[in-house]
Amino acid sequence: MNVTNFVSFEFPSLPQNVSFARSSVGAFVAQLECTLDDIEEIKLVVSEAVSNCIIHGYENDTKGKVIIMVSIYDNNSLEIVIDDHGKGIEDIEQALEPTYSSDSNRMGLGFTLMNSFMDELEVTSIPGEGTRVRLSRSFSLANREAYA
Amino acid sequence: MNVTNFVSFEFPSLPQNVSFARSSVGAFVAQLECTLDDIEEIKLVVSEAVSNCIIHGYENDTKGKVIIMVSIYDNNSLEIVIDDHGKGIEDIEQALEPTYSSDSNRMGLGFTLMNSFMDELEVTSIPGEGTRVRLSRSFSLANREAYA
Amino acid sequence: MEGVNPFLWKLLEEIRQEGIDLVDVELKQVRNTLVVKVTGELDMLIADNLRSIIDEKLNEGTVRNLIINLEKVTFVDSSGLGVIIGRYKKMTSTEGRMYIVGAKPNVEKILRFSGINKLIPLYKNEQEIINI
Amino acid sequence: MEGVNPFLWKLLEEIRQEGIDLVDVELKQVRNTLVVKVTGELDMLIADNLRSIIDEKLNEGTVRNLIINLEKVTFVDSSGLGVIIGRYKKMTSTEGRMYIVGAKPNVEKILRFSGINKLIPLYKNEQEIINI
Ligand SMILES: Nc1ncnc2c1ncn2[C@@H]1O[C@H](COP(=O)(O)OP(=O)(O)O)[C@@H](O)[C@H]1O
Ligand SMILES: Nc1ncnc2c1ncn2[C@@H]1O[C@H](COP(=O)(O)OP(=O)(O)O)[C@@H](O)[C@H]1O
User: Hey, how many other C-beta atoms are within 10 angstroms of the C-beta on C46?
Assistant: First the structure.
């Protein structure tokens, strides 16, 4: 499995960058053999992960940095890694529980959406240093083969 | 003049990334107070500069890296820096001449377009190490004030 | 990126302080029913703003039922769902009813995924609610 | 990013070697006039492919006049202009005529900027050429 294309982004934790991030990643992954619905799902999970960096990681402080790395592989799969250098997560297991949120105004649905729409979700974090969310998904090559 | 938003990208010198680069930068600069025509012009100059990195800098070798940095300032202006670590330019003055191209199949129009559609164009290069193209442009605040 | 005194950030501050609307939203009250029609992408950028626009109207005390029209919403994530669920809690606390109309397929998919549709019924358009 | 044996890159190689078309292009020959209708964005990704598709047809020797229909082209940069100018040189070398039709305002702006319109006349549509 080889990386065939790659992009990394870095931008400040400003709310308007959530929309920029999801549309940019959407534009990039459009080179995979996948449907428009698949791209919508990718945009959603990116929106969730980047919102989390800003809201939870940096507690809405706009001086933080968000880093996104997207890799496309030759088996029509992709990996998205989203990093922040924010406050980190003390209890990852709890954070991953459906409906758990440290913020009573929120739904605790972010990780559940990431889990459901991606094949893999991996969260690593060092409290006080930051959080990394790794998402991956592979798409069938059926369409591609039908074209060839 | 303060930076109000910023994004940096890094991606390999693959031809399909030219389209990705211009649409991503276009999506990012849409937060300036400017017209759709202005955004079209920004997309064009990004397309020219990134194509140059791939075609001239890396001579179509797809293993190179292209780096783009976009900064938005609080006076409704923007700066775009495009870097490659390719072969560099020996004679920058000659390269900037309208219609000059080192490739007989090309028009030598890239830098002319960048010059015409941006307020400033600055090219720095170290032969054997790479090239940096810095573009900047400011937009009037007339529209913005009309809204306020 | 140094200091945060940005053009757009200033705009966001103004929105918070002076109530300038970042979200493109249309309010229409027909007797005791408030129809909220949102345009654009329902994410964290507009969530706070949308929440306060609706709540301000609800706090006037003349609204009994709430219809959220999502016809022109092209994207929703959990920040957007949070605003909807929050208004639902508010409405049920005053024994009002709430409906969602016009969700596009991709938006409806997320509403169903979250289970919101079990609390707040989804309709094609406002007419369909009147007909029930 | 290691090695370049990519899915998409392989596709690009195939295009070069086997003539699979990356660019969405429609060719139509009416007597000795070839109409080339391109769809999409005319940049370096599709330039080589478009060039060889047109040249292959021109090399058959039955084409005297060339019409490039840009109705469905949403973007053009200097790589795209290069393909057009190159075909113009080829056409004039055989004393053929060349026309561009249907350029959208943003595409027309770049054609005019480059001065191409002084060499290759621009028309709204194919009908307009027949009427001259
Ligand atoms: N990048 C992050 N940095 C710090 N904490 C995070 C981050 N992402 C998620 N969390 C924690 O995990 C919890 C669950 O996240 P999530 O499922 O997305 O729900 P929500 O965003 O609605 O709270 C959050 O409430 C927060 O406490
Ligand atoms: N990134 C780069 N690396 C190396 N050489 C470059 C680069 N950008 C431009 N050049 C040189 O400058 C010349 C002029 O560039 P340009 O005006 O864009 O025209 P064109 O791309 O049509 O050649 C190129 O032909 C090339 O020799």
Answer: 24
